[in-house]
TrEMBL record:
CDD domains: ABC_Carb_Monos_I, ABC_Carb_Monos_II. It is a peripheral membrane protein. GO terms for cellular component: plasma membrane. SUPFAM superfamilies: P-loop containing nucleoside triphosphate hydrolases. It is found in: Cell membrane. PROSITE patterns: ABC_TRANSPORTER_1, ABC_TRANSPORTER_2. This is Heme ABC transporter ATP-binding protein. It comes from Actinomadura craniellae. The keyword Cell membrane applies.
Length: 510
């Protein structure tokens, strides 16, 4: 059936205990097409693609590949029908070479031995043909994220895939690597391959997709949209089911009470280089202070010094834990946390969650000495579980229950759990590092609301973000950091993203 779609999913429904992940979903993807699947975190996109790849079985519905009905019991069945999947978190062996990773499990044989010469020739030919530029003998542990992703793509192509599924392929890439990936996808399309990719980065979707399907809360709400006839804002409103919110602060809630004062703070590396160089700033109750800077200019080290994770070389940090400002420069992290400093870390997987642990255990992280997580010297499981259920309800964490591991949640729901945990300690100061990074517009809007409400109640916030519109819209005061120094203070009410970007790179400031 030459005119049949490469993929047709009809009335797909998938249920898990306590939740319907997919409900009567329909999806049609033409051959030789780049097709984007958009939706909020937790909308059911990844579950649907896992069904197509044989990792899950649908409870209802049918799957057709090139016009033929199929029933996949495992990924091996999907691979045999020419389907390959590149997961968001790569599945490569760091201690093996590119060649060894690509052929692992599909090794060509010659007289009972692996035919490395044949494998190398095929990998080099495919690399040239699809513009993937990989070095077969390079150890994977030496490769950057973009190179690793190309190895993953080559790995599925090596197994004969003609339909590729990419799960959030740009989530961990820098802009230059995103452009290289899109060039690769166009090359694959020109060779007649079909590409399906999951994303909530709408500008990127419009840049590379031939067609778009939008899923909301497990159901199809828009099918095969033409990217030339839809805007990113319209897509976002389809995803969330309402008008798209914007980051903005309304009336001022800033008080005269200084909550945190950093004075001439310097942080040095082990080699003696100053990564934070003479920084002074203050944050008042009811104020959000934004910090804008290209990543790697000292904002991470500044946060760690304020949290007590990193030693401050010189300078002083003062914090209002009672009626007066106290010098906390030498305080350990635990004491700072118990004094009311909340922390949303930049990397939720590495520093914010124990992914294998259930939600109620993750609720205790950083607060394991405080009620309701303890009673006297003992962990209070009942109290922790009860409060986790409250957070799930109040912060709209979409989960079947509090006993599921944190890894089972979508990125946006993981982030809402962290925000709920940090807000539940009734903090006086919140350090929010990239609080909306890697999450969809719905979760992003919810977190903006939480910050606005807490600010109105007197919370002091230090906001670090790579999203310039978020920084401008959500800051009462906005500083620019460059090479470890605060180089400008700009007015969030008048500065443009272009002017702010210029100040961040050291060009002519606003």
């Amino acid at each position: 059936m030459p005119d049949a779609p490469a993929v047709r999913l009809t009335a797909i429904t998938k249920r898990f205990p306590g939740v319907v992940a997919n409900r009567d979903i329909n999806l049609s993807v033409d051959q030789g097409e780049v097709h984007a699947l958009c939706g909020e975190n937790g909308a059911g996109k990844s579950t649907l693609m896992k069904i197509l790849y044989g990792m899950q079985r649908p409870d209802e519905g049918t799957i057709e590949i090139n016009g033929e009905p199929v029933h996949f019991k495992s990924p091996a069945d999907a691979i045999a029908r020419g389907i390959g999947m590149v997961h968001q978190h790569f599945k490569l062996a760091d201690n093996l070479t590119v060649l060894e990773n690509v052929i692992l499990g599909a090794e060509p044989r010659r007289r009972w031995r692996i035919d490395f010469a044949a494998a190398r020739a095929r990998i080099e030919e495919m690399s040239r043909r699809y513009g993937l530029r990989v070095e077969p003998d390079a150890l994977v542990e030496t490769l950057g994220v973009g190179d690793r992703q190309r190895v993953e793509i080559l790995k599925v192509l090596y197994r004969g895939a003609r339909i590729l599924i990419l799960d959030e392929p740009t989530a961990v890439l820098v802009p230059q690597e995103v452009e290289e990936l899109f060039d690769n996808l166009r090359e694959l399309r020109s060779e007649g391959l079909t590409v399906m990719f999951i994303s909530h980065k709408l500008d990127e979707v419009l840049q590379v997709a031939d067609a778009i399907t939008v899923i909301r809360r497990g159901s199809t709400v828009a099918k095969c949209l033409d990217p030339a006839e839809v805007t990113a804002r319209q897509l976002a409103e389809l995803m969330v089911g309402s008008e798209l919110p914007t980051p903005e602060l309304r009336e001022s809630t800033v008080t005269e009470d200084v909550q945190l004062e950093v004075d001439d703070l310097t942080v040095r590396t082990a080699e003696g280089r100053a990564v934070v160089d003479g920084v002074s700033l203050r944050i008042r109750r009811g104020e959000i202070v934004g910090l804008a800077g290209v990543e790697g200019n000292g904002q991470g080290e500044l946060i760690e010094a304020i949290m007590g994770i990193r030693h401050a070389g010189t300078g002083r940090i003062r914090y209002r834990s009672g009626d007066d400002l106290s010098d906390i420069t030498g305080w350990p992290t635990r004491r700072r946390r118990e004094a009311g400093i909340g922390y949303i870390p930049e990397d939720r997987h590495r520093h914010g969650l124990v992914l294998e642990g259930p939600l109620w255990e993750n609720r205790m992280l950083g607060h394991q000495t405080e009620r309701p997580n303890v009673r006297g010297p003992w962990i209070d499981r009942r109290g922790a579980r009860r409060d986790t259920a409250r957070i799930v309800d109040e912060y709209d964490v979409r989960t079947p229950g509090i006993d599921v591991p944190a890894a089972a949640l979508s990125g946006g729901n993981q982030q809402k759990l962290i925000v709920g945990r940090e807000m539940s300690g009734e903090p006086r100061l919140l350090i929010a590092a990239h609080p909306t990074r890697g999450i969809d517009v719905g979760a992003q809007a919810a977190i903006w609301d939480y910050l606005r409400q807490a600010r109105a109640a007197g919370l002091a916030v230090l906001l670090i973000s790579a999203d310039l519109e978020e920084l401008i819209g959500m800051s009462d005061t906005l500083h620019v950091i460059l090479r470890g120094r605060l180089v400008a203070e700009v007015d969030p009410g008048t500065v443009t993203p272009e002017e702010l970007g210029s100040a961040m790179t050291g060009a002519e400031g606003p």
